[in-house]
Protein backbone atom coordinates (compact mmCIF):
# COMPACT_ATOMS: atom_id res chain seq x y z
CA UNK A 1 0.00 0.00 0.00
CA UNK A 2 1.33 3.43 -0.95
CA UNK A 3 0.91 5.71 2.08
CA UNK A 4 1.86 8.74 -0.03
CA UNK A 5 -1.77 8.92 -1.23
CA UNK A 6 -3.19 9.42 2.26
CA UNK A 7 -2.17 13.08 2.81
CA UNK A 8 -3.77 14.02 -0.51
CA UNK A 9 -7.06 12.35 0.46
CA UNK A 10 -7.03 14.06 3.83
CA UNK A 11 -6.29 17.38 2.16
CA UNK A 12 -9.22 16.93 -0.22
CA UNK A 13 -11.49 16.14 2.73
CA UNK A 14 -10.38 19.30 4.51
CA UNK A 15 -10.97 21.40 1.39
CA UNK A 16 -14.43 19.90 1.03
CA UNK A 17 -15.19 20.60 4.68
CA UNK A 18 -14.01 24.20 4.42
CA UNK A 19 -16.14 24.69 1.31
CA UNK A 20 -19.18 23.25 3.09
CA UNK A 21 -18.61 25.45 6.14
CA UNK A 22 -18.09 28.57 4.02
CA UNK A 23 -21.18 27.81 1.94
CA UNK A 24 -23.23 27.57 5.14
CA UNK A 25 -21.93 30.97 6.27
CA UNK A 26 -22.91 32.49 2.93
CA UNK A 27 -26.47 31.20 2.93
CA UNK A 28 -29.49 33.45 3.31
CA UNK A 29 -31.67 32.37 6.25
CA UNK A 30 -34.85 33.20 4.32
CA UNK A 31 -34.32 31.21 1.10
CA UNK A 32 -31.55 28.91 2.47
CA UNK A 33 -29.43 29.49 -0.63
CA UNK A 34 -26.23 31.40 -1.37
CA UNK A 35 -26.66 35.16 -1.09
CA UNK A 36 -27.67 37.15 -4.15
CA UNK A 37 -26.86 40.84 -3.53
CA UNK A 38 -26.42 40.54 0.26
CA UNK A 39 -28.09 43.21 2.42
CA UNK A 40 -27.48 43.62 6.14
CA UNK A 41 -29.84 44.76 8.91
CA UNK A 42 -28.73 46.90 11.85
CA UNK A 43 -28.78 43.74 14.02
CA UNK A 44 -25.95 42.39 11.79
CA UNK A 45 -27.93 39.62 10.09
CA UNK A 46 -27.55 39.41 6.31
CA UNK A 47 -29.99 38.21 3.64
CA UNK A 48 -30.48 38.35 -0.12
CA UNK A 49 -31.69 41.81 -1.08
CA UNK A 50 -34.81 40.37 -2.73
CA UNK A 51 -35.58 38.15 0.26
CA UNK A 52 -35.27 40.88 2.87
CA UNK A 53 -37.13 43.49 0.81
CA UNK A 54 -40.08 41.13 0.28
CA UNK A 55 -40.00 40.10 3.94
CA UNK A 56 -40.05 43.70 5.18
CA UNK A 57 -43.26 44.42 3.30
CA UNK A 58 -45.15 42.29 5.82
CA UNK A 59 -42.84 42.13 8.85
CA UNK A 60 -40.96 44.61 11.03
CA UNK A 61 -38.70 42.15 12.85
CA UNK A 62 -35.47 40.44 11.77
CA UNK A 63 -36.17 36.92 10.39
CA UNK A 64 -33.34 35.55 12.56
CA UNK A 65 -33.27 37.34 15.92
CA UNK A 66 -36.72 38.99 15.75
CA UNK A 67 -35.34 42.36 16.81
CA UNK A 68 -37.41 45.30 15.65
CA UNK A 69 -36.07 46.77 12.41
CA UNK A 70 -35.49 50.48 12.93
CA UNK A 71 -33.34 51.22 9.87
CA UNK A 72 -33.55 50.15 6.21
CA UNK A 73 -31.17 47.32 5.22
CA UNK A 74 -27.88 48.29 3.61
CA UNK A 75 -25.62 46.67 1.03
CA UNK A 76 -23.17 44.31 2.77
CA UNK A 77 -20.00 44.89 0.77
CA UNK A 78 -17.90 42.71 3.07
CA UNK A 79 -20.03 39.66 2.29
CA UNK A 80 -19.93 40.59 -1.41
CA UNK A 81 -16.14 40.27 -1.30
CA UNK A 82 -16.41 36.88 0.40
CA UNK A 83 -18.82 35.72 -2.29
CA UNK A 84 -16.42 36.81 -5.03
CA UNK A 85 -13.70 34.70 -3.39
CA UNK A 86 -15.95 31.70 -2.81
CA UNK A 87 -18.02 31.29 -5.99
CA UNK A 88 -15.08 30.16 -8.20
CA UNK A 89 -14.99 26.96 -6.08
CA UNK A 90 -18.59 26.02 -6.84
CA UNK A 91 -19.29 23.06 -9.10
CA UNK A 92 -20.62 23.57 -12.63
CA UNK A 93 -24.13 22.62 -11.48
CA UNK A 94 -23.95 24.98 -8.49
CA UNK A 95 -22.66 27.79 -10.68
CA UNK A 96 -25.45 27.25 -13.22
CA UNK A 97 -28.07 27.32 -10.46
CA UNK A 98 -26.54 30.47 -8.98
CA UNK A 99 -26.56 32.22 -12.36
CA UNK A 100 -30.21 31.24 -12.87
CA UNK A 101 -31.13 32.73 -9.51
CA UNK A 102 -29.17 35.90 -10.32
CA UNK A 103 -31.16 36.28 -13.54
CA UNK A 104 -34.43 35.81 -11.64
CA UNK A 105 -33.43 38.43 -9.06
CA UNK A 106 -32.37 40.84 -11.80
CA UNK A 107 -35.73 40.43 -13.53
CA UNK A 108 -37.50 41.04 -10.22
CA UNK A 109 -35.67 44.32 -9.65
CA UNK A 110 -36.19 45.40 -13.25
CA UNK A 111 -39.91 45.11 -12.61
CA UNK A 112 -39.55 46.92 -9.26
CA UNK A 113 -37.68 49.77 -10.96
CA UNK A 114 -40.45 50.14 -13.53
CA UNK A 115 -42.97 50.37 -10.68
CA UNK A 116 -40.80 53.02 -9.02
CA UNK A 117 -40.57 54.98 -12.28
CA UNK A 118 -44.35 54.86 -12.68
CA UNK A 119 -44.83 56.01 -9.08
CA UNK A 120 -42.48 58.97 -9.66
CA UNK A 121 -44.22 59.85 -12.93
CA UNK A 122 -47.62 59.75 -11.23
CA UNK A 123 -46.37 61.99 -8.40
CA UNK A 124 -44.99 64.50 -10.90
CA UNK A 125 -48.23 64.53 -12.88
CA UNK A 126 -50.18 65.14 -9.66
CA UNK A 127 -48.03 68.17 -8.85
CA UNK A 128 -46.14 66.68 -5.91
CA UNK A 129 -43.42 69.04 -4.71
CA UNK A 130 -39.97 67.59 -4.08
CA UNK A 131 -37.05 68.92 -2.06
CA UNK A 132 -34.63 71.23 -3.87
CA UNK A 133 -30.95 70.41 -3.34
CA UNK A 134 -30.00 74.07 -3.88
CA UNK A 135 -32.19 75.28 -1.00
CA UNK A 136 -31.17 74.84 2.64
CA UNK A 137 -33.11 71.99 4.21
CA UNK A 138 -34.51 71.78 7.71
CA UNK A 139 -33.50 68.98 10.08
CA UNK A 140 -36.75 67.17 9.27
CA UNK A 141 -36.21 67.51 5.52
CA UNK A 142 -32.70 66.09 5.90
CA UNK A 143 -34.09 63.16 7.87
CA UNK A 144 -36.71 62.43 5.21
CA UNK A 145 -34.14 62.53 2.41
CA UNK A 146 -31.80 60.28 4.42
CA UNK A 147 -34.48 57.59 4.58
CA UNK A 148 -34.46 57.40 0.78
CA UNK A 149 -30.66 57.34 0.64
CA UNK A 150 -30.65 54.31 2.93
CA UNK A 151 -33.56 52.60 1.22
CA UNK A 152 -32.59 52.85 -2.44
CA UNK A 153 -29.51 51.90 -4.45
CA UNK A 154 -28.38 51.86 -8.06
CA UNK A 155 -30.81 53.32 -10.58
CA UNK A 156 -33.54 53.86 -7.99
CA UNK A 157 -31.15 55.89 -5.83
CA UNK A 158 -29.99 57.95 -8.81
CA UNK A 159 -33.60 58.70 -9.80
CA UNK A 160 -34.53 59.48 -6.19
CA UNK A 161 -31.67 61.99 -5.92
CA UNK A 162 -32.45 63.49 -9.32
CA UNK A 163 -35.96 64.40 -8.13
CA UNK A 164 -34.34 66.98 -5.83
CA UNK A 165 -31.93 68.22 -8.51
CA UNK A 166 -29.10 66.24 -6.91
CA UNK A 167 -27.65 64.76 -10.11
CA UNK A 168 -24.26 64.08 -11.66
CA UNK A 169 -24.74 67.14 -13.86
CA UNK A 170 -25.45 69.28 -10.79
CA UNK A 171 -22.31 68.02 -9.04
CA UNK A 172 -20.11 68.52 -12.10
CA UNK A 173 -21.32 72.01 -13.08
CA UNK A 174 -22.45 73.77 -9.89
CA UNK A 175 -20.52 76.69 -8.43
CA UNK A 176 -18.99 76.37 -4.93
CA UNK A 177 -21.86 78.02 -2.98
CA UNK A 178 -24.38 75.52 -4.37
CA UNK A 179 -22.05 72.61 -3.61
CA UNK A 180 -21.70 73.74 0.01
CA UNK A 181 -25.48 73.93 0.45
CA UNK A 182 -25.88 70.49 -1.12
CA UNK A 183 -23.18 69.01 1.12
CA UNK A 184 -24.87 70.38 4.23
CA UNK A 185 -28.25 69.13 3.06
CA UNK A 186 -26.99 65.55 2.74
CA UNK A 187 -24.74 65.80 5.83
CA UNK A 188 -21.59 65.28 3.77
CA UNK A 189 -18.19 66.09 5.21
CA UNK A 190 -16.73 69.24 3.63
CA UNK A 191 -13.01 68.58 3.01
CA UNK A 192 -10.62 71.35 3.95
CA UNK A 193 -7.17 72.06 2.52
CA UNK A 194 -4.61 73.92 4.63
CA UNK A 195 -3.46 75.86 1.57
CA UNK A 196 -6.57 76.49 -0.52
CA UNK A 197 -9.44 76.18 1.96
CA UNK A 198 -12.23 73.88 0.76
CA UNK A 199 -11.14 71.15 -1.65
CA UNK A 200 -14.00 71.30 -4.17
CA UNK A 201 -12.70 68.48 -6.36
CA UNK A 202 -12.75 66.15 -3.38
CA UNK A 203 -16.15 67.50 -2.31
CA UNK A 204 -17.55 66.63 -5.73
CA UNK A 205 -16.18 63.09 -5.33
CA UNK A 206 -17.84 62.80 -1.91
CA UNK A 207 -21.19 63.93 -3.31
CA UNK A 208 -20.92 61.49 -6.22
CA UNK A 209 -20.26 58.66 -3.77
CA UNK A 210 -23.40 59.54 -1.82
CA UNK A 211 -25.67 59.35 -4.85
CA UNK A 212 -24.09 56.14 -6.18
CA UNK A 213 -23.54 54.25 -2.92
UniProtKB/TrEMBL annotation:
Domain RING-type as annotated: residue spans: 28-66
Gene3D superfamilies reported for this sequence: Zinc/RING finger domain, C3HC4 (zinc finger)
GO biological process entries: DNA damage tolerance; protein monoubiquitination
InterPro entries: Rad18 (IPR039577), Znf_RING (IPR001841), Znf_RING/FYVE/PHD (IPR013083), Znf_RING_CS (IPR017907)
Keyword Transcription regulation: no
Name recorded for this polypeptide: RING finger protein
Taxonomy, superkingdom: Eukaryota
Matches recorded under Pfam families: zf-C3HC4_2
This protein's UniProt keywords: Metal-binding, Zinc, Zinc-finger
One of the record's GO molecular function terms: single-stranded DNA binding
Amino acid sequence: MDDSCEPSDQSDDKVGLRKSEMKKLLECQVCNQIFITPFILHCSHTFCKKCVMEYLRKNKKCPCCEKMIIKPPAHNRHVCLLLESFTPYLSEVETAMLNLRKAEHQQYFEEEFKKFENMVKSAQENGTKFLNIERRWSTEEKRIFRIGLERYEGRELELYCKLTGFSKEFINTSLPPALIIAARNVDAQIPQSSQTGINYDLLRDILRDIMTS
